Amino acid sequence: MLTGSDLLAKVKELGDVSKSDLVRGCGYVSTKKDGAERLNFTAFYEALLEAKGVSLGEGGGKSASKGGRKLSYVATVQGNGNLLVGKAYTAMLDLQPGDEFEIKLGRKQIRLIPAGSSEDDE
């Protein structure tokens, strides 16, 4: 099974082949008890992501609690136009219901400044 730069080079070399041929060509194949071939798609895609610098391993990012999802530090504007900052982030900052913020708009950015403080207090 190829990994790292060898995997990336082989994927590029194989070009426009089927997903099955790609997985097979990179060595992500095992044999079932009955002798049939089994393509290990999950292992292949995990190795491909790892080779491209995307880590799926444990301990990489911060999380708000034990288990659960890792924080992505990305917020997405919802369909109704709202921008939601989740509980995990407010908990990290020890924010409480009723805490107020001044909204500062810049070029393609939004800054939230706690009410009653200056920007230098960050």
Low-confidence stretches: 59-65
Strand order of the largest sheet: 1-2
Q: For the residues shown, what is the average pLDDT?
A: 83
- Overall structural class, as computed from helix and strand content, comes to alpha+beta
H/E element order: HHEEHHEE
Count of β-strands: 4
Shape: elongated
Approximately how much helix is present in the residues? 25-40%
What distance lies between the first and last C-alpha atoms, to the nearest angstrom? Answer: 49 Å
Strand content: 5-15%
C-alpha Rg (nearest Å): 23 Å
Task: Provide the descriptors you would attach to this structure in a database record.
two-stranded antiparallel ribbon, 29% helix, 4 strands, alpha+beta, two-stranded antiparallel sheet, 15% strand, single chain, 122 residues
Structural account:
The chain has 122 residues and is α+β, with helices and mostly antiparallel strands. Helix content is 29%, strand content 15%. The chain has 4 helices and 4 strands. The strands form 2 sheets. The chain has a two-stranded antiparallel ribbon. Strands 3-4 form a two-stranded antiparallel sheet. A hairpin with a 5-residue loop joins strand 1 and strand 2. Helix 1 crosses helix 3. The longest helix is centred in the N-terminal third of the chain and has 11 residues. 5% of the residues are buried.
